[in-house]
User: Fold Anti-sigma-W factor RsiW from Paenibacillus hexagrammi.
Amino acid sequence: MTDHIEDLISAYIDYELTEEERKLVEEHLEQCLECSALRNDLLAIQNQIFTSLRPIEAPVSLEDKVITELKMKVSTSRTRLRKWFLVPILTVLVLFVIVAIFSNSILFNLSSILVKFGFNMIYAIGNVLGAEPLMVLSMAVIALVIIITSGLSIKHLLKSKVIQGDSI
Ligand SMILES: [Zn+2]
Assistant:
């Protein structure tokens, strides 16, 4: 009796052997109870896997549905993203208007605040640093509000991203 062919049985079952190897395995299986028992076991396992993993036919429209759904998700998440980036920017703008009113400076011209935004920012910082403690305190509160608002919008962004990821 030649050596057992355990290593080849799995490949034999999966039709991965050459014609020559196949013949050798079949000859051996006819004479060897041990190897033919192993082949039967492997076939049983394979059958079990195939029956438990019965393929399900996907509906023809599935691909189109998935693509449409994904396109919709991408566009809605983009608008949501834009909207939430506006919140901190608008907050900063509103706060600068408030600072302009409180500081009574001619440099803070409300009509040109958007055009002179960068310019005004430098003056606002300068004004606040030179002003009384109440001004510094109010600026600290404003900064805190900006940080909290930004934090909340980032949190919202992350949350909406996670929900999106889950549903895909
Ligand atoms: Zn054998």
Observations:
- The CA atoms of residues 42 and 64 lie 40 Å apart.
